[in-house]
Amino acid sequence: MFEAHDCLLCISDGTTISDINRSRITKDHYFKSQEEMANLFSDLPQAISNSIIIANMCSFLMEEKKPSLDPAAAAPSAPAPSEPAEFASKHVRSNIAPILFIIQSEQLILQRTDQKAFTLMSLLGVFMVFFIVHFPKVIAADNFNYLSGLMVFLYFISATIGLISLMMVIIPRVRNDMAHEDLPDVNITFFGGITQFANVLDFAKYFAETTDDNENTFKMFSAQLYALGHINAYKNKHMRRAILFFGIAILSELIIIMLMTWGLTWTALFI
Fold this sequence. Notes:
The protein is mainly α. It is built from 10 helices and no strands. It folds into 2 domains: 56 residues, no CATH class; 173 residues. Helices cover 69% and strands 0% of the residues. The longest helix is centred in the C-terminal third of the chain and has 57 residues. The protein starts with a helix and ends with a helix. About 6% of the residues have low confidence.
């Protein structure tokens, strides 16, 4: 078999067996048995077990059709409208990879939102410290008037609301309203479900039983994606509110500085 495959490679590349620069394979290029793979990875047995777990999470459903040389007949046909909805659902449930990709994207959005919240909180803290240090000088100034007091009040209110909104973004959230009769009792796609098991053996047993059913696996990941979407929407709502009040606080502080500077300039020039 090795020699025949080597000849096929030469035919495919348009070369000869005597060509030293051609593509080559070794005699180890073949589908090995389970025992041979276990021997090859005897120093890393978890590689075999992890491969099985990944394989159980993947599925592919091929539509059966008779061989045909007619291009029109060889083209894949869409499900007929009269076919039951279960046919289409099986096609969707058999492909979990897109859901995993979307979950990864939602998790990335969640991380970036938290990073923005930490950055904005740091900036807000710097401005608040600066204002608090100079606050006694502001209220003791001779030109401190009703408008300056209003801006000071607006600044503290806006900064406080912005800080609370940022805290609402950063605080970890877990949705507890995901229970449904059609969903598995325990969702093992996040830490809240994993920690419900007393030991690793119980978790491994439940994991194997649940992932054997492709429909249950699809439902679990769908529930996790649904929860992540709602958490991201919640975080982004408070993030937009924090940005709004942060801008109001900075604008109020700038107006206070302008009023104080204008008062000092007026006093120095005309009084």
